[in-house]
Amino acid sequence: MDMFIQGTQSTEMVQLETQTRRAEVKVAMTMVQHNIPLAFSDHLSPLFKECFPDSKIAQKYSSARTKTTAIINKCVAPYLMDELVKNLCDQPFSLATDGSNDTGREKLNPLTVKMWSSQGVINDS
User: Fold this and answer.
1) Is 124 part of any domain?
2) Could you give the number of structural domains in the chain?
3) What is the pTM of this model?
4) In sequence order, what DSSP letters do the residues of 3-44 get, joined into one string?
5) Is residue 120 part of a domain?
6) 83 close to 115: Cβ distance less than 8 angstroms
7) Do 42 and 64 touch, CB atoms closer than 8 A?
8) Looking at residue 95, what DSSP letter applies?
């Protein structure tokens, strides 16, 4: 009750909230990395609660499609874009393009950026 009166949270509650947010971001990034549809995230909160009933983080986890999309688009994507721009400014890179001769209504014009990083090669397979 004192917590609500004073407007402060206990250290344990703040730590649990931080761990839960970290879990939500990690799950969102894993879904993106493995090209899993974001609609699948609607099923994860109930699944985690059922599979891990003794975990406070799993019980507090609540990231369905809307929140997962917001995490990806509003939090992670801007950070990764900034990191990409920094790397492109500091390191050599090359651009390759290949126009499409598709006779359909939509034309594809893929753009590939190959970059070298001082952190080494990142192999995404």
Assistant:
1) no
2) 1
3) 0.71
4) HHHHT---HHHHHHHHHHHHHHHHHHHHHHHTT--GGGGGGH
5) no
6) no
7) yes
8) E
Each residue's pLDDT tens digit, 71-100? 999 999 999 889 888 888 888 888 888 776
Structural domain span for residue 92: 2-100+107-115
Pairing verdict, β 111-115 and 93-97: antiparallel
| Contact yes or no for 31/40 (Cβ under 8 A) | yes
Cβ(41)–Cβ(23) under 8 Å? no
Classify residue 121: in a domain, yes or no.
Answer: no
Q: How far apart are the first and last CA of the chain?
A: 51
Task: Look up tokens 């290949």; give the residue.
Answer: 98
Tens of pLDDT, residue by residue over 13-28, are 899 999 999 999 999 9
Whole-Å CA distances, 4 to 1, 20, 21, 28, 56: 6, 21, 22, 31, 21
Q: Determine, yes or no, domain membership for 71.
A: yes
Beta bridge partners of 97: 111
